[in-house]
Amino acid sequence: MTDADTSLPTPRIQLTPQEWRSKLNPAEFAVLREAATERPFVGEYTDTKTDGVYSCRACGSELFRSTEKFDSHCGWPSFFDPADSDAVILRADDSLGTHRVEVLCANCHSHLGHVFEGEGYNTPTDKRYCINSIALTLHPSDSGSAR
């Protein structure tokens, strides 16, 4: 995995902090716009098996699909690949005294979570996109069936 450049392209959706605050509740704003992390094992989609598409809660862009979701038992929804390679932006995150790679929505630059590689999960990419549930909205497929 290559870390993204520290300079980001201009987001397609640009709102002022006040506009984001009116669109998002305080917990959503903290995660999506201030890069907070929701507590593990409390998120709405952590253990969800519903077939469908996960979009950015801030702007509605498609980010992940249930077919790429897997049980990582880490406390947050985990995916091995975004729905579209251009759906997310990866950015180096050296906060908290460690090197991580932050995952942002490519459309609005909202913070989604982090991606980790080489942890030994048996997935096609050997990557774990560890995403805050509160950053996502699940749109169940027409059948609405669970996997």
UniProtKB/TrEMBL annotation:
Transmembrane segments: none
One Pfam family cited in the UniProt record for this chain: SelR
Keywords (A to Z) from UniProt: Oxidoreductase
Family matches, as InterPro entries: Met_Sox_Rdtase_MsrB (IPR028427), Met_Sox_Rdtase_MsrB_dom (IPR002579), Mss4-like_sf (IPR011057)
E.C. numbers: 1.8.4.12
Chemical reaction(s) catalysed: L-methionyl-[protein] + [thioredoxin]-disulfide + H2O = L-methionyl-(R)-S-oxide-[protein] + [thioredoxin]-dithiol
GO molecular function, one term: peptide-methionine (R)-S-oxide reductase activity
SUPFAM superfamilies attached to this UniProt entry: Mss4-like
Domain of life assignment: Bacteria
Record-annotated MsrB domain positions: 17-141
Alphabetical list of Gene3D superfamilies matching this protein: Peptide methionine sulfoxide reductase
Keyword Cell membrane: no
PANTHER family: METHIONINE SULFOXIDE REDUCTASE (PTHR10173), METHIONINE-R-SULFOXIDE REDUCTASE B1 (PTHR10173:SF52)
Name of the molecule in the record: peptide-methionine (R)-S-oxide reductase
Origin species: Nocardia jiangsuensis
Lineage, uppermost ranks: Bacteria, Bacillati, Actinomycetota, Actinomycetes, Mycobacteriales
